[in-house]
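TetR family transcriptional regulator (Streptomyces amritsarensis), 201 aa
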Amino acid sequence: MAARTTEPAGTHEAPVPQRLLAVATRLFAERGYDRTSVQEIVEAAGVTKGALYHYFGSKDDLLHEVYARMLRLQQQRLDAVAASDAPVEERLRAAAADVVVTTIENLDDAMIFFRSMHQLSPEKYKQVRAERRRYHERFRALVEEGQRTGVFSTATPADLVVDYHFGSVHHLSTWYRADGPLTPQQVADHLADLLLRALRP
């Protein structure tokens, strides 16, 4: 992924927490979490260390929030899709496409997380795993609903179906390029269609 040389538009007009997160995300993506210092973050954000520690107790808190904000967005959207009255096949396809689009739209966040998750404190690592598990369980429930009602094949266990799709999602940051031949929505549609074909009775 090409390193950015400028801050995201409007960074220095943004509230301090958002400014710190934007700068930390850029630096973590460019240099890596372990090679980015708190001093570099506050200098790039134009704030003091005191300001950072007012909003985030540590660099570890920043790393956690980089991922947590994306997961919160994805969880809210999945909950809305799953709770709708649409047929289960439509709900699963929408959920499968949405997680691809939102991951691509937050590709730096996803890359940082999968590259640096192991550097979280044990407590935050456990918390993130629990948050991710909740998302996966809600997604898996759609697969299980379709299997239970005969809409989807039961030949493959729901857990494997979910792992198959999210394995593709987790690799997006290694190959997707904004200047490539496919838009985020086109990638999402292809991967969602692959999932639905795998579940066809």
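The mean pLDDT is 90. The longest helix spans residues 122-148. ok done for today
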